[in-house]
C-alpha cells in the first residue's frame, strides 16, 4: 500500500469517526417553566411519559395534543431535558422540528405554548396552526 493510499484511508476513518461523535440538536427544546410543570405532571405512583403530537383539528387545520403513555412508541422521538422526558409522535416530528415548548400562566388560564418555526399561520385564538 502506498503512502498516499494509507493517508487517504486514515483521513476517511477520522472523518467518519468525527461524524459519529457530532452532537445533535434536540427535535424540541423545553423552557425551564415547561420542565417544572412536566415534572409535576409525571410524578405519581405509576411511571408515566408524555407524548406530544400534532393532530388534524382546529380552525387552522393542526393542533397540538399532549397525552400520557406508559411506553415509548417504536418510532417516537425522545426529548430529554434535565430529568424530564417527552416523546414526540413519529407522524408529527417534521411538523415540530425546532419547536420550543413553554408553560404560561396568567390570571385566567395556564397552558403549554409551542413556539414553532415551521408554523406559517395560526388561528385567532392561537389553538391551531398551519405548516
Q: In which order are the strands of the major sheet placed?
A: 4-5-2-3-9-8
Order of helices and strands: HEHEEEEHEEEE
Helix content range = 25-40%
Number of helices: 3
Mean pLDDT: 78
Alpha carbon gyration radius:
20 Å
Note poorly predicted spans.
none
Describe it.
With 131 residues, the chain is of the alpha+beta class. 26% of the residues lie in helices and 36% in strands. It has 3 helices and 9 strands; from the N terminus they run αβαββββαββββ. The chain has helices at residues 3-21, 32-42, 93-96; strands at 28-30, 49-56, 62-69, 77-81, 84-88, 99-105, 110-115, 121-122, 128-130. The strands form 2 sheets. The protein has a 6-stranded mixed beta sheet with strand order 4-5-2-3-9-8. A 3-stranded mixed beta sheet has the order 1-6-7. The termini are far apart.
Main attributes of the structure:
six-stranded mixed beta sheet, alpha+beta, 3 helices, three-stranded mixed beta sheet, 131 residues, 26% helix, globular, 9 strands, 36% strand
SSE topology:
Blueprint: H1 3-21, E1 28-30, H2 32-42, E2 49-56, E3 62-69, E4 77-81, E5 84-88, H3 93-96, E6 99-105, E7 110-115, E8 121-122, E9 128-130
Parallel strand pairs: 1-6, 2-5
Antiparallel strand pairs: 2-3, 3-9, 4-5, 6-7, 8-9
Describe this structure in a few short sentences.
The protein is an alpha+beta fold and 131 residues long.
Amino acid at each position: 500500500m502506498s503512502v498516499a493510499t494509507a493517508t487517504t484511508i486514515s483521513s476517511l476513518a477520522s472523518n467518519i469517526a468525527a461524524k459519529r461523535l457530532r452532537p445533535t440538536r434536540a427535535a424540541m427544546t423545553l423552557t425551564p417553566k415547561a420542565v417544572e410543570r412536566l415534572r409535576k405532571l409525571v410524578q405519581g405512583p405509576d411511571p408515566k411519559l408524555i407524548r406530544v403530537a400534532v393532530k388534524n383539528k382546529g380552525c387552522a387545520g393542526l393542533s397540538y395534543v399532549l397525552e400520557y403513555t406508559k411506553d415509548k412508541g417504536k418510532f417516537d422521538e425522545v426529548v430529554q431535558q434535565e430529568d424530564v422526558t417527552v416523546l414526540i409522535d413519529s407522524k408529527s416530528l417534521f411538523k415540530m422540528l425546532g419547536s420550543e415548548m413553554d408553560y404560561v400562566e396568567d390570571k385566567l388560564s395556564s397552558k403549554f405554548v409551542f413556539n414553532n418555526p415551521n408554523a406559517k399561520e395560526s388561528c385567532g385564538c392561537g389553538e391551531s396552526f398551519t405548516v
